[in-house]
Amino acid sequence: MDHLKYSVLREPVSILMPVFNEADLIEEVIEDWIQKVLQHCPPGSELRLDDCSTDETPAILRRLAGKYPFIRVNFAPRDGFFASMIRLYQSAACPLVFFTDADGQYVPEEFWRIAEHIDQYDMIHGVKVDRQDPYYRVVVSDASNLLLRLVFRSQCQDANSAFNLIRRHVLETVIPDLCHMKMMPNAEVYLQAEAKHFRIKHVPVSHRLRKSGKSRGLPLGRFIVACVEVFISILRLRWKMASSRARMVGHVEPIDTRLRTMNSRD
User: Fold this and answer.
1) How many whole angstroms separate alpha carbon 158 and alpha carbon 18?
2) Which residues contact 24 (CB under 8 A, 6 or more apart)?
3) Per-residue pLDDT at 117
4) Which H or E element spans position 71?
5) Which stretches of the chain score pLDDT less than 50?
6) Would you state the pLDDT for residue 219?
7) What pLDDT score was predicted for residue 220?
8) Which of 22, 52, 106, 231 has the fewest Cβ atoms surrounding its Cβ within 10 A?
9) How far is CA 54 from CA 16, 44, 57, 149, in A?
């Protein structure tokens, strides 16, 4: 039955992962994705990594890139998650683009759970179930999603999730407008795609504890400051979107209400 599962993907996919100081687990994570996902993807698929590490991670990635011809690594000085994400999206060569984290908290096999919907949608958005992060991050994430739903009248359930399969033409439309939510860049990708009326499907995905090392999330003290910055960035993005709509002259097609209703039931 596995061959039926793998056949849902008809086009090659660029799998993207930003990496920072993951020497203790990065090889296991990459090998897991290769065995359970990449070796079953259509010819031409690739794994792209953007590495800003200061530990032994670069040496591990160079060795893996020499072993697997479909691995492509960009090495850069540390300049933040947002910059790393943008480089990855801009370098993706395939018609389908999948973005995820390199910390092993997402389950590779569940890529196929979202891939089965890509023929009907422009973006498949993984929604974390039973999130395995510190409690304060879970609480703030829930509050942020509620705020986004209220401010943007969004359908988001887990806007900043890093488990997304997107058509490349969507990214080509969305990426030039990204600049407001650098603390929650995945959320801005989602909101921009939603505002531009692309078809989005929500799919529940698992989230597990890190096998080793520390979470790359901010410590509690810095996290509180970051929450204020996120709130301000949300207001700025809302103002920008409102200003853009005000300058338009009625060329935006309404979202199919049937689609939104169907999606809300998933």
Assistant:
1) 19
2) 212, 213
3) 96
4) strand 71-75
5) 246-266
6) 55
7) 56
8) 231
9) 20, 31, 8, 38
